[in-house]
Design brief:
By secondary structure, the chain is an alpha/beta fold. The chain has 15 helices and 20 strands.
Amino acid sequence: MSGCSRLSGFVESYVSPSKTPPESKHGWRPGGEVGAQNSEPQIKVSVLITCLNHERYIEAAVESALAQQTSFDFEVIICDDGSSDRTPEILRQLAARRPGRIRLLLEPDNLGQGGVEIFFRGMRLCRGRYVALLDGDDYWTDPSKLELQAAFLDAHPDCPMCFHNSEVRYEDGRSAGWPLYPVPLKERLRLEDLIEISSIHNSSVMFRTAVMEGYREWCEAMGAENLNDWTGAVVAARMGPLGYLDRVMSVYRQSPAGAWVRLGRAGQLEAVIRRYEQVDRFLNGQYREQIEKAICVRSYEASIEYEKQGDFESARRNLWRCLAGRAEWLSAYTAAHGVGVEKFRLLLSRRLWLYRHPFLFRLAAKAGRFAAWSKWVLIKTIVLLGAPLRLVRGTGVGLMIASPNPAPASARHPDLGATTLKWVTLGAAHLEIRVGKPDGELFVRATGTASGSSTTGEWVRDGMLFYLQNVSGGRKLSLANTLDVVRVAVKAGKQTPSL
């Protein structure tokens, strides 16, 4: 690395539409992977900044781009989508202070379409082999960002795009206290992996210009209301795996006035579900199983959010969408939370019944909260009300234990901890514990000591929900959760379930 920024010396101020270069068939600038063929030095990376009424933040965004330290030439292109505040004035001042380092596209009127059109017009100005995106209200925090991402794409020619972690901050500058991805992702994500995470920070993305091939058609098929950073990444993931750099190099600014924040958690989940459905249609059902699993989880989560609001009709609609789907829908949620499919279906059916009686539901919820003080109180209340616990297998044991610690303790989350599970079985050779985690399934064989026809032992695991099964030859099982969170239903063989 040279230790200093080297930007193109070519500067222009574009005022749409008279000076906008002609658009190619696919909505991206001719020149593609290698940039425009002209007498100017070849540019490796184009930084594309788009903004709309970002007078409070745009200077920080631009300065963070200009502060990049690279061993190659890069250009900074800023596109304003018809701002009605002082953003255009600030941009002109920045360009005047930094002659030869900034190119402007200032639209006199807002182009609409959720920023899609201004993005395409900006892309037609990009001459780099790679394009790095930056929203006008975000900023980069690592001066090596462009160098690292360009090096990654150079070293991985099969990856059309790469992105990195971001810090979440509020509008007033306060940190939210967690990065966008608290748990590290894979270094290379396939399309099915992308379906699981359902979010990518736009200002962390760098992609090859070839990604733009057919992108306008994709946008038209999706509809402006369903477009976001993640749906754009889906287009890239069709071409190859996406690269992930586990390093925080940008700030994602969340504003309470932002359209996404105003939706609230339930509205956000519904929007994600609609995007999943649109993506499924665009991909011709090729990844339907993964998408249906993702929809199941988010439908259930949306029902919980609507419960909190007292909107039982919306809660019922989302829960029914979860229940009415194929078996894969339910198996996804049960795999993540350690509950047998049949049992979970019965639990949700009981909850649906309670939705039809809001007064009883509120009474049950209050009683459950008083008894358990857990965010999983609603499920536990249903169990205590007498939902039958059916066997998944004739010789299995199925039950749910909820811990107040939903994630393992770590340097980032020291307030979280582990659950110790103790057991005693009579007439059993071993006990197998199935552990469900949000990022996949994990099966663990619990170990203990055998004495005659019984086994005893202790098992410690970071997590939230446990599903116990396959007590070989067992007819009785007793469990003690050292945290004493909730009473557990015990059953084996054909015995009648009891609490």
